Amino acid sequence: MTSLIGRARARGVEWVSLDSPDTRNALSAALVDALTTAFTECGKDDDVRAVVLTHTGNTFCAGADLRDPPHPDALVGLLRRLVELPKPVVARVTGHVRAGGLGLLAACDIAAASHTSGFAFTEVRIGVAPAVISLPLLPRTDPRALARYYLTGERFDAVEAARIGLLTAAGEDVDAVLEPVLDGLRRSAPGALAETKRLLTARVLEAFDRDAADLTALSARLFSSAQAREGMTAFLERRDPEWLV
User: Fold this and answer.
1) d(Cα 225, Cα 117) in Å, to the nearest integer?
2) Is the entire prediction scored with pTM above 0.85?
3) Per-residue pLDDT tens over the stretch 175-200
4) How far apart are the C-alpha atoms of 149 and 156, rounded to whole Å?
5) Ramachandran quadrant class, 227 (left: phi over 0; alpha: psi -120 to 50; beta: rest)
6) What structural domains and CATH numbers belong to the chain?
7) Which positions, given as ranges, span the membrane (predicted)?
8) Cβ distance 107 to 126 under 8 Å?
9) pLDDT tens, residue by residue, 116-155
10) Contact 78/33 with Cβ under 8 angstroms?
């Protein structure tokens, strides 16, 4: 089977790439499993100072793979693994991000994107809700902005994503944006990085402890609903859903 992720290392930084461009890097059960394994290995490797999560193709992540979606518990496990990892995780985005992919960004400690990137919470348009991904998103992102984009599914650009806290920074050249970030991480003591990350993620992990079970149940219920079946079918058939007025 073709690998769904790519991995490389440079000066203590592990680069993990979503590498399923044919599916726009949609989060299938297999891709979620591969990412969870990769980050688990990075967490145990003393030679890894930090991890960069990036992608191939023009889409960072299109959200859940509607033909082979991950179990909500598996997605929760992946997001928590990113948050709990004792190494900083940096997202590098040069393409579009939709739905579940935005949960990946929020679970990273630092996230940067090029100005060509675009973002949207498209869940409501296929009859579901951004349930599980809210675990890292709600503690880290502007609540008024989330209300708008969660409820409407509108697209927004990288500048707006940075303004609302979804991104750390946006720029014409994302690698130029990240160069001082990676330099700073390489100059930092590993133990100090781990403890500093622990301080920064405490509120996010509180949300996981408090809400993960309820949001997992909500996700499972919505994905099995009649509206979700209609919304997903309409999406795959490239037509408007029956509720459009």
Assistant:
1) 32
2) yes
3) 999 999 999 999 999 999 999 999 99
4) 8
5) alpha
6) 1-173+189-245 (3.90.226.10)
7) none
8) no
9) 999 999 999 999 999 999 999 999 999 999 999 999 999 9
10) no
| Residue carrying the six token digits 């100072």 | 49
DSSP the chain: ---SEEEEEETTEEEEEE--GGGTT-B-HHHHHHHHHHHHHHHH-TT--EEEEEESSSEEE-SB-TTSPPPHHHHHHHHHHHHH-SS-EEEEE-SEEETHHHHHHHHSSEEEEETT-EEE--GGGGT----TTHHHHHHHS-HHHHHHHHHH--EEEHHHHHHTTS-SEEES-HHHHHHHHHHHHHHS-HHHHHHHHHHHHHHHHHHHHHHHHHHHHHHHHHHTSHHHHHHHHHHHTTS--TT--
